[in-house]
Task: inverse folding
């Protein structure tokens, strides 16, 4: 854990952070709003006190309540991994700016997050499915994606259940939560 | 409740209309993105060439659509997903111990690194202290696996350029290591050897005698095998200056591992963000500045020598003690997140786990170096000949099992 790095992050991004800076083992975590992704990432990349020139990973996470875009960065200015979480993307229309202007190599990572979660990265010029076939209509890693063995209990059971990405909005609430169906889990 | 009818790939009526085994390079629907529209618009004198999915040089099941102008490749569009198994989804429905065998078949020539990435992040999540002997056994077996993987790379590299002999030699070399690891782990390819908090089983007599036997002649054997290619004028002249990439572009394309080090950046996770007992071991990080296919090839040759040094030190410094920490059968880490990266033979293999307090990972993200490197093939290819596609692709060393997850 690099305490001075935490202080530097707080001094630089004080008002932009949407939660406290957390540290555990060799990781430092900051949370920002999706709208701040471009200024914060540019600052981290260009500012000589940070120099995060290496994008280690880009992942999508569905917490059950919101979507998150999670970036991991590496720099020689700190021994920690920096985890930047763009928090609070809406599950109905998850949108976040693309980081391909800094790292063109993020293009396929964003395509994968789009393929698996339906997250729209604004500014990515090749946002199409990468693993699933183009005709596929659902997003397999979302928490409301129903697996085949749960299908009989799902609201859309019996009719192309694998392609039901959302419970339709006009479904009565009694049908939405059938007894024994999987409840949506959630993490912070 | 009604749902609109859509044509679907698993609809039998659609499959009947298609001719089996024919891949049209141009997709039958209008372009969905800016880049797709640009790629699937032909210029004057250009045409599309479909390569794959069953092509001997694609190292798995990969389809590449080439846009060619005469003999030159103008652009290319890789089509993935033929090997997609949804390992990330499988991991969300398996408990923490079961995940280790799920990630094994990702990069199937270096399975120990896949397991290592997973167990390292779980150990961070659970605050587990790994016994030192287990750490040394992990380093020892993983470096052996790295040599096996690089040996295979050298053979495939030559095979993709049309040389048949080196692949036979490298399989002899790899087979010795694989048999050795089989006597340690019980498996030849998908080892399932690492456990959360240690390894499954201590070093045994069979393994140690095979290892000692091999170590006594490994350097000369590897040297002899490499002489077949390093001193081959056709090979060297074909590879030199082919598919170069500079440092800045490589960093922007998120390159890691040997492909990044071939451009002059001494970035190695074992030193840049140390894990396990690597800080206690003495080894160099070879770099080259050319950034072309030959540099990427020669860099791996140098890495094999460093791995031999590490194995030698492991054998001398191996402490006594237990090989696995005492842990309950059912693991319920407290809610949190953990990220860990290991230096696999291809680059940074990373795992990001989110726990919600149950015995299954809430989300497990696997970052695979092959996937990242494959997207730059188009960048490296532009202006080269069709026959060089295989050479450039092979020099990046992608494994489709890892690319398609």
Result:
């Amino acid at each position: 854990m690099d305490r001075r790095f935490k202080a530097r992050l707080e001094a630089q991004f004080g008002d932009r952070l949407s939660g406290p800076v957390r540290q555990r083992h060799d990781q430092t975590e900051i949370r920002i709003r999706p709208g701040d992704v471009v200024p914060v990432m540019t600052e981290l990349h260009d500012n000589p006190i940070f120099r995060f020139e290496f994008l280690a990973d880009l992942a999508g996470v569905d917490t059950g309540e919101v979507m998150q875009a999670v970036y991991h960065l590496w720099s020689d200015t700190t021994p920690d991994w920096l985890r930047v979480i763009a928090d609070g993307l809406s599950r109905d229309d998850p949108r976040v700016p693309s980081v391909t202007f800094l790292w063109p190599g993020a293009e396929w990572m964003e395509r994968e997050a789009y393929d698996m979660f339906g997250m729209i990265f604004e500014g990515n010029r090749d946002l199409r499915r990468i693993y699933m076939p183009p005709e596929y209509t659902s997003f397999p890693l979302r928490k409301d994606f129903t697996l085949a063995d749960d299908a009989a209990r799902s609201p859309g059971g019996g009719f192309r259940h694998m392609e039901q990405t959302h419970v339709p909005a006009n479904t009565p609430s009694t049908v939405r939560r059938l007894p024994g169906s999987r409840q949506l889990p959630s993490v912070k | 409740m009604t749902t609109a009818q859509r044509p679907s790939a698993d609809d039998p009526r659609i499959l009947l209309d298609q001719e089996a085994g024919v891949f049209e390079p141009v997709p039958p629907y209008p372009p969905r993105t800016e880049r797709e529209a640009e790629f699937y618009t032909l210029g004057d004198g250009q045409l599309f060439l479909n390569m794959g999915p069953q092509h001997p040089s694609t190292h798995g099941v990969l389809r590449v659509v080439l846009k060619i102008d005469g003999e030159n490749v103008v652009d290319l569009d890789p089509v993935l997903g033929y090997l997609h198994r949804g390992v990330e989804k499988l991991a969300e429905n398996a408990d923490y111990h079961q995940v280790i065998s799920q990630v094994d078949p990702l990069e199937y020539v270096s399975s120990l690194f896949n397991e290592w990435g997973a167990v390292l992040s779980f150990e961070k999540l659970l605050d587990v202290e790994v016994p030192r002997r287990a750490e040394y056994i992990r380093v020892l077996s993983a470096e052996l696996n790295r040599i096996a993987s690089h040996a295979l790379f050298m053979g495939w590299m030559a095979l993709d350029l049309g040389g048949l002999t080196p692949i036979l030699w490298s399989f002899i070399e790899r087979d010795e290591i694989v048999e050795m690891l089989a006597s340690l782990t019980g498996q030849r390819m998908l080892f399932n050897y690492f456990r959360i908090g240690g390894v499954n089983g201590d070093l045994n007599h069979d393994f140690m005698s095979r290892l000692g036997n091999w170590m006594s002649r490994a350097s000369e054997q590897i040297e002899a095998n490499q002489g077949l290619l390093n001193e081959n004028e056709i090979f060297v002249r074909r590879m030199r200056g082919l598919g170069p990439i500079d440092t800045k572009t490589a960093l922007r394309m998120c390159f890691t591992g040997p492909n990044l080090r071939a451009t002059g950046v001494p970035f190695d996770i074992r030193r840049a963000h140390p894990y396990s007992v690597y800080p206690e071991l003495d080894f160099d990080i070879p770099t080259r500045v050319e950034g072309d296919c030959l540099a990427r090839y020669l860099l791996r040759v140098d890495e094999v020598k460093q791995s031999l040094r590490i194995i030698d030190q492991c054998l001398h410094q191996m402490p006594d003690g237990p090989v696995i920490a005492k842990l309950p059968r059912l693991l319920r880490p407290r809610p949190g997140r953990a990220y860990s990266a290991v230096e696999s033979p291809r680059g940074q293999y990373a795992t990001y786990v989110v726990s919600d307090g149950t015995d299954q990972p809430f989300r497990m993200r696997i970052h695979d170096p092959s996937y990242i490197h494959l997207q730059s093939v188009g960048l490296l290819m532009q202006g080269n000949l069709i026959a060089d596609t295989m050479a450039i692709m092979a020099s990046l060393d992608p494994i489709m099992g890892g690319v398609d997850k």
Summary: Residues 156-165, 172-182 of chain A have pLDDT under 50 and may be disordered.
